[in-house]
Amino acid sequence: MCLGIPGRITQIRESDPFPIALVDYGGVRKDACLAYIPDAVIGEYVIVHVGFAIARVDEAEALRTLDVLRAMGDQVTQELGEPLR
Amino acid sequence: MSVINDPVQATCPAPHAEHERVLLGHGSGGQLSARLLHDVIVPGLGAAAADLSLDDAAVLDLEPFIAPADGSAGGGAGSEDLRSGSVVVTTDSFVVDPLEFPGGDIGALAVHGTVNDLAMRGAQPLALTVALIVEEGFALADLRRLVASVGRAAARAGVPVVAGDTKVVGRGCADKLFITTTGFGRRAPRARCSATAIRPGDAILLSGPIGLHGVTVLATREDLGFDADPQLRSDTRPLHRLVQAMLDAGGADVHALRDPTRGGLASALNELAEASGVGILVEEDAIPVPPVVAAACDLLGLDPLHVANEGCAVAFVHPASADAVLAAIRSCPEGAEAVRIGTAVADNAGRVALHTLVGAYRIVDMLVGEQLPRIC
Amino acid sequence: MKYLDEYRDPALARTLLAQLRATATRPWRIMEVCGGQTHTLVRQGIDELLPAGIRMIHGPGCPVCVTPLEIIDKALAIASRPEVIFASFGDMLRVPGSRTSLAQLRAAGADVRVVYSPMDAVSLARADPDRQVVFFAVGFETTAPANAGAVLVAERLGVTNFSILVSHVLVPPALTAILEAEHCEVQAFLAAGHVCAVMGWTEYEPLAAKYQVPIVVTGFEPLDLLEGILMTVRQLEEGRAQVENQYARAVRRTGNGAAQDAIRRVFRVTDRTWRGVGPIPASGLRLAETYARFDADERFGTGDVHAVEEPRCIAGRILTGQSLPTDCSAYGTDCTPRNPLGAPMVSGEGTCAAFYCAGRRAARPVPVTDLTSVLNRR
């Protein structure tokens, strides 16, 4: 039930009472309700849980997390003098 | 000459009504049955079927496959001596829902599934039989199309359909169309593929990506409300040529073969581990999962290792021949993406262990319970 | 898949594990309260790779598992009615009630449908106005906005043959109950990433301060969990007790305001008994009076149900982290996913199911040894 995965909004259509987005998850597409991200735009990434978008993905934060981890990897390499297996 | 003056050639001037439906009478054995056979079944099954004497059973002529006694090069595709080989037989039923999906349909599945069962025992497929159970009311146009698909698949695989049967049951007594097949093959002595031949140290080769068939069928079923890129297609295809290429390259070093269908790669590997009594170790990041399959599995909470396939094979090969056999698989179009995914080991006898992405080990079980009904 | 695959990178995972080994100087006990996180930990074997001394305690993170047996039995009673189409998420189907399960009812002819979203249940109701559609609304705060949304849509579109059977639970009161328990061994928590995407993390700040426990909001992919555990261990080593956010790409401190508004509009906080744990005040949600007409419990008046627990099931001890599935005498023998005695073995988020499907048996499998030479040959 925690199953929430990120996908990219490819279309938005008006619907009563909430807009519906067509979300693309790496080649598989499914509708999601935008009741809780009403200002979402096409091209944005959102986290969808049981058919509702519940959060936007903050791209800057996503990249920052990976940069931090990669820097950590370089640091460990320097300390050990060899890359991790 | 007017059509009316030549009654033998008489055809009804009214156009065929392609909205015609299968009636109970079509299964009764009388004139309607004969019409169905001649108008729909036989034309659809292709050239081999057209030679049918339409007797109740077919005679298989094995002569072309046996080498002459004087040792000179024999006829047929295999030049090795098949006289001491074995006849291999298999049977299968196909109840897939929906009947048609990207990359295939129940007809193609029936041919490929049966050919592959023979191939996984190392046999060259010789002939197929096809029995149909049709629900009253099924559209004749659909039946025609699906039978033609059987014919096309058989022709492409080079395996003739030599006998068949058609039954019609009342509306509601069967869901649209079920197909049952029997396949016959001939196996050379060198091809003794069996789980019991697996030994620790054997390389485990996988001929292609996993999860395509199951996810495609799911995506096509309307009740799930998702659709996918055109590249999401069932992988249904015949693997007998690929198997022959493996046997040509590795001979008796090809210890075991299996095509993971229902229950996915995990179930197939577990069956082999249990039957052979060795352990299996596979690398999670070596297993090829197409991105669209991974996405669908994430969306639906499925494990790609448990999703059905219809066009890939896993082989256990003695390490001395592993590279050669892998190259042979890759030289076939249906095996272009083959990879080594793991090794048979002495530890953990009877179980399948996965070396996970983060570097831990966990046991992979067979599929528990029902995941996807009527997937093949 | 973007924003997923990157967080499964094996090389970065090894980096994090190395950092953990370098950072931890003492044993620590950390609890995660999220079934999705439990499953990633167990499926990837992360819990077995942590430096010796760091122990993950699997908490009551499975809303299916903590749904009271009485509510399961009510669901079964409703699903048995001929006029009802009973819709629920897939993993509810084999959860055992006192006498039967939704799957068994379906096999016997009841109209039970698996849906992906509560909106699918509303669609079913619109498509079939002569039948009653009941949706089993189980979940944490993550799912509450979706269930609220379904009720709001049904209200807006005038769908009257739709109702929900509510079994929502809230995470912060559960953490309090665990921290207040005698012999609480938990020294820190990973907070569930998607619960916090909805609710934010402000409710956890007073808990961290009062009980002096670090709480790190964490995602679900292997790198998320490893980074969340690393951040937690750093706090523990440094003697800090703060709320931090590992899942920064999806969670903000105040969460999703629109989702919270919908929850407040449609639901009210109520006392709730957690199966296997006991009553926890103000730990659940029920429908607000203005939406009482959508309450399946009222609509179908199932009355009092006499629930009978399976005596061998130690779900309560599993859910509070006092026991592991492998400690249970029925685990893997009489209790398997095919024949579950309790919810944690059948739910997609249950700890027992996670263990079983990763092949962990009471007897530890023989560790695979001397494989480096084998693995290097490709």
Please give a quick description of this structure.
Chain A has 85 residues and is α+β, with helices and mostly antiparallel strands.
For the sheet with most strands of chain B, the description reads: 7 strands, mixed
Question: How many distinct folded domains of chain B?
Answer: 2
* Strand proportion of chain C: 15-25%
* End-to-end CA span of chain C: 26 Å
Shape of chain B: globular
Name of the CATH first level of the largest domain in chain C: Alpha Beta
CATH first level of the largest domain in chain B: which class?
A: Alpha Beta
Kindly name the structural category of chain C: alpha/beta
| Residues in helix, % of chain B | 25-40%
**CATH architecture label name of the largest domain in chain C:** 3-Layer(aba) Sandwich
Could you say what the CATH topology of the largest domain in chain C is called?
A: Rossmann fold
Given as residue ranges, the uncertain stretches of chain B (5+ residues, pLDDT < 50) are 1-16, 67-82
List the domain count of chain C as a whole number.
3
CATH homologous superfamily caption of the largest domain in chain B: PurM-like, N-terminal domain
Structure in words:
The complex is a heterotrimer of chains A (85), B (376) and C (378). Chain A is an alpha+beta fold. Chain A contains one helix and five strands. Chain A has one helix at residues 59-80; strands spanning 4-13, 20-25, 28-33, 45-49, 52-56. Chain A has a five-stranded antiparallel β-sheet with strand order 3-2-1-4-5, with no helix packed on it. By secondary structure, chain B is of the alpha+beta class. Helices cover 27% and strands 22% of the residues of chain B. In chain B, the strands form three sheets. Chain B has a seven-stranded mixed β-sheet. The radius of gyration of chain B is 23 Å and the shape is globular. By secondary structure, chain C is α/β, with parallel strands linked by helices. Chain C folds into three domains: 5-63 and 174-238, Rossmann fold, CATH 3.40.50.11750; 64-170 and 255-300, Rossmann fold; 315-356, no CATH class. Chain C contains 17 helices and eleven strands. Chains in contact: A-B, A-C, B-C. At the A-C interface, strand 1, strand 4, strand 5 and helix 1 of A face helix 1, helix 2, helix 7, helix 8 and helix 10 of C.
